[in-house]
Amino acid sequence: MEINLPKDEEKILKFWKENKIFEKSLEKTKNGPRFVFYEGPPYANGLPGIHHLLSRALKDVILRYKTMQGFFVERKAGWDTHGLPTEVEAEKKLNIRSKRDIKKIGIEKFIEECRNSVFTYKKEWEEFTERIGFWLDLEKAYITCSNDYIESLWWILKQIWEKGLLYQDYKVVPYCPRCGTSLSSHEVAQGYETIKEPATYIKFKIKDAPNTYLLVWTTTSWTLPGNAAIAVNPEFSYVKVKVGQDYLILAKERLSALKKEYKVVKEFKGKELLGLEYEPLFDFIKPNKRASFLIKGEFVSIEEGTGLVHIAPAFGEEDMEVGKQNDLPVLMTVDEEGKFKPEVEPWAGMFVKEADPLIIEDLKKRNLLFKEEMYEHEYPFCWRCDSPLLYYAKTSWFIKMTVIKEDLIKNNEKINWVPGYLKEGRFGEWLKEVKDWNLSRERYWGTPLPIWHCQIGKNHLIAKQLPTVHTQQGAKRLVPKSKIKNQKDCHNIKVIGSIEELEKLSSKKIKDLHRPFIDEITFRCEICGGQMKRVPEVIDCWFDSGSMPFAQWHYPFENQEKIDKNEFFPADFISEGIDQTRGWFYTLLAVSTLLGFGEPYKNVISHGLVLDTKGKKMSKSKGNVVWPKEVVDKYGADVARFYFYTINQVDDPKRFDFKDVQTLYQRFFDTLHNTQIFFTTYVGEEFQPKKDFKSDNLLDRWIISRLQNLNSRAIEKLDNYDIVGAARLFEDFVDDLSNWYIRRSRRRSQKPRTKEEKTEASQTLYHLLLELAKLLAPFCPFISEKIYQGLSTKEAESVHLTDYPKPNNELIDQKLEEQMKRVREIVTLALAERVKVGIKVRQPLQKLEIKEEKLDKESIDLIKEEINVKEVILNKKLGTEIKFETKITLQLKEEGMVREVIRYLQDMRKKIGLKPKDKILIQYFGSAVLNRVLAENRDFVLKETKAEDFKLKEKLKKVFDIEKEVGVNQEKLWIAIKRT
Ligand SMILES: [Zn+2]
Ligand SMILES: [Zn+2]
Fold first, then answer.
1. Which residues pair with 196 in a beta bridge?
2. Which residues pair with residue 451 across a beta bridge?
3. Which of 93, 140, 620, 622 is catalytic?
4. Is 448 labeled as catalytic in the residue annotation?
5. Catalytic-role residue among 59, 66, 80, 540
6. What are the two backbone dihedrals, phi and then psi, of residue 58, each rounded to the nearest 5 degrees?
7. Could you say which ligand is closest to the alpha carbon of residue 526?
8. Are the C-beta atoms of residues 158 and 476 closer than 8 Å to each other?
9. pLDDT tens for residues 843-883?
10. Ligand 1 center to residue 644 CA distance, Å?
11. Ligand 1 mean position to 143 CA, how many Å?
12. Nearest Cα to 130, choosing from 138, 120, 118?
């Protein structure tokens, strides 16, 4: 009767499949109210990981629960396909390292590889999904690279354009030099790491002032050749100090940074420094405008550094901003691959971060380095290829999220976050600081940006600086008429919102919306007759997934009513990892808010990440990855699921440890399994359930009360999306059921004193198992199905086609539950006391006193049986909680011996696989005392062991099935049994 869950689960999967149980559950609920669920699309170009098991297990609980409550829960699967995750994998397969290599092999070949690799592991994903019991409609999955999906995205982008919220600008953006593209702020949020790198204090020599320097602090020495100005806070106090032979200028409050002896020569306000000129550190690129002077900067703080801030407009968002205000030159010293341009001679072609130490060395040689120290801070890395990101000026297309900030915040108000603190915290803070969405990617495999522009005057479009567009009127023309120098220039821009629109304009049949094919589609400019060509960029793949509420239904080309009438929108529930808080959870809200649709989901569970046993991130390179298959093959999907439901709070990081899974397996699943075995063994096949059976037995009333309590609280927790809280209720219940209810009901089932006693126990246990199977079904779909199928009379074909039980609060007896808790406390104390004085439970004792005023007879009987005493006396004046009479009389001693022999006989019965009803013959031979005692208790032994005869060993041939030499109270005994 060994438990083998993985094998059982395989059988159940077959049963579900052959009998179409999932389909039947949808059929059964199709007329019920809709419960809308959105599946966050994974990439199928890698194998599913253990974190996917966690996230799918959480989703499945809620979806099964709602289905059992009669809701119609469609579960459309989805696949993310575009963007860097696919491109980086395709590059690996083609063994190429840069964009230059892609251009060499050709975009068409590269796109082909991307397209082919999208579904490398689709089969594995589908098998995994099915194996863990996550019911998902894989056949109707949405795919982000399908034409329908892209068409919806185009339509959405056109809406955004028409609202004047899509614009092109030259801005400093986070940029991955390896991938050769800029990224959005939510992509950057995926990849921060703590690093240590050198920070330097640089001396900028003031013009015409011997030995006098401005002291400037920086952590990015590679940006120094791009320096255009130094910012000073006009309100701060600054000092000129003498250090050795040099005079240094810095903020008074930052003098501590010097860590050297100094003498203050002069003190003055920052504004006195404005306009002061200094000698540039480098002259690789000649500025085309005034540079190298002090400018005003209210943002200059005295929290770190020197109160003087190095400004490189090409490499910092704020730098670019003050650069525009002060008309500073943008000194672009770095190329698209993050390497110094040829003009920066000594370090030309070198990756900027690698050049850092060489630049510092150069400044040191020229006596321009004051000091260098190590500095620890958070630095962003590419979320896809792990390269350090750089910030630099690029032309990019943006969505003006800052304009809809208030709407984003308002819509977030309506969302129920689990855990709740994320709403105002991690997510709310993010919205308050919302940045415009850097939408365009200078890449290949993605949704093409559906913007066509007239080639006459196109240079304005990619000009270094464009006016920021705020209004709808302005959006149509990026360059206002007044600014057009050559009147022949056209600047017409057309954003395409459907395939039909593009086909009409171009008079071409369009089969594939991807690059490079779409790049070939041109049409006549309706204003000047020139040629309209698509801009080269594709879009951020996070826009793809964020648009899934609409694009998965090919909105508005199909299903328009269903979404407009709030049938398919918003989602009632979504769930993904906490890393998606600033990822998918954000982009869903962003797109929906941009379209004016309000909040895209009502409830969201954001769960913690899965780490290794030491709390480290799992990665293939570290060799600490746990694959879901390992866990499922060894313990089964139910165990893996339930582990995640109970191990800690939903948002806590999960340090995955097989030891914890093993413990859970024994504590919960083994116990549950034994409960079922107990039922089949002692209640058996002839059992007939009675409808609405009610037992008056104390234990029965108690466990029924516990069951109803479980039912009522599980619903309450699930309705609040508190999966952990709900799952933990089951742990307590199964402990009560097995370690108290069944344990104390054993005698009633095995050796009932009356027929009624047996009926009460069996009917109650049947009812318990039936209801427990239903209540547990959303959490552990397999073992609950197994329990359900093991019960003789069923109301439905599968437990998953039953209704989720409704609690009967009348059966909850809080007082009884408290009383039973007290009984269990007394028993625990008494058992501990027996261990302390070294008397086994098998040895009956005469008396136990309890410090208690009142206890009913049934409770007292339970205590008597459990701790094996003849009488229980209530004594309110007792000094301690309990007190045993430990004197063992001859009679008690002999009774103990008989019980020990019976136990040996029971073990032997089990060992040869006898069922309770099987009869036996017993032979024995022992010491004179034992022989006498056993003869005297012959009838009792016969009854307890279901034996037909019980006699002293005779000179017979070997007629027994099993024999054994045992010790009973230091006396020897030989016993043997034979099945009759
Ligand atoms: Zn990258
Ligand atoms: Zn034109």
1. 376
2. 495
3. 620
4. no
5. 80
6. -65, -45
7. 2
8. no
9. 999 999 999 988 999 999 999 999 999 999 999 998 899 99
10. 32
11. 24
12. 138
Alpha-carbon Rg for the chain, nearest whole angstrom, is 38
* 483 Cα to the center of ligand 2, angstroms: 16
Cα(262) to centroid of ligand 2, in Å? Answer: 66
- Could you say which ligand is closest to the alpha carbon of residue 337? 1
CA atoms of 842 and 900, how far apart (whole Å) = 7
Helix (H) or strand (E) holding 563: helix 560-564
CB 204 within 8 A of CB 232: no
**Distance from the CA of 182 to the center of ligand 1, in angstroms?**
9
Using the predicted structure, report yes or no on whether residue 736 has a pLDDT greater than 70. yes
Omega of the bond leading into 807 within 30 degrees of 0 (cis): no
- The answer to whether 807 and 789 have CB atoms below 8 angstroms apart is no
User: Which residue did the predictor score with more confidence, 184 or 28?
Assistant: 28
Q: Which residue has the tokens 């003849």?
A: 870
CB 568 within 8 Å of CB 548: no
- Structure letter (DSSP) for residue 4: -
Ion ligand 2 — residues with CB < 5 Å: 454, 456, 490, 492, 525, 527-528, 530
Active site residue 287: no
Active-site annotation holder among 488, 617, 840, 919:
617
pLDDT at 467 over 70: no
pLDDT at 2: 62
Query: Mean pLDDT over residues 295-307, rounded?
Result: 92
Closest CA to 217 of 377, 391, 336, 351: 377
> 23 by DSSP, 3-state: which?
helix
Task: Tell me the CA–centroid distance for residue 710 and ligand 2, in Å.
Answer: 71
pLDDT 10s digits, 371-429: 999 999 999 999 888 899 999 888 899 999 999 999 999 999 999 999 999 999 999 99
User: Is residue 740 annotated as a catalytic residue, yes or no?
Assistant: no
Render pLDDT for 468-495 as a digit per residue (tens, 0 to 9).
333 344 444 445 555 555 556 677 889 9
CA of 454 to the centre of ligand 2 (A): 5
487 labelled catalytic: no
Percentage of residues of the chain with pLDDT beyond 70: 95
Q: List Cα–Cα distances, 198 to 60, 356, 387, 444, 555, in angstroms.
A: 49, 9, 18, 36, 52
Predicted confidence (pLDDT) per residue in 231-281, tens digit: 999 999 999 999 999 999 999 999 998 988 999 999 999 999 999 999 999
Q: Does the annotation mark 155 as catalytic?
A: no
Distance from residue 186's CA to the centre of ligand 1 (Å): 14
620 catalytic residue (yes or no): yes
- Spatial distance between the Cα atoms of 851 and 871, rounded to a whole number of angstroms: 14
What digits encode the pLDDT tens for the residues 150-166?
999 999 999 999 998 99
**Which residue bears the tokens 């209540």?**
775
Is the sign of the CA dihedral 232, 234, 236, 237 positive or negative? positive
Q: Which of 69, 159, 552, 580 is catalytic?
A: 580
Taking the CA of 533 as reference, the closest ligand is 2
Q: How far apart are CA 952 and CA 975, in angstroms?
A: 9
Given 383, 553, 584, 702, which residue is catalytic?
584
Are 197 and 219 spatial neighbours (Cβ–Cβ below 8 Å)?
A: yes
Query: 452 CA to middle of ligand 2, Å?
Result: 11
The candidate with the shortest Cα–Cα distance to 116, out of 44, 52, 179, 41, is: 44
Active site residue 580: yes
Q: For the whole model, what pTM was predicted? A: 0.87
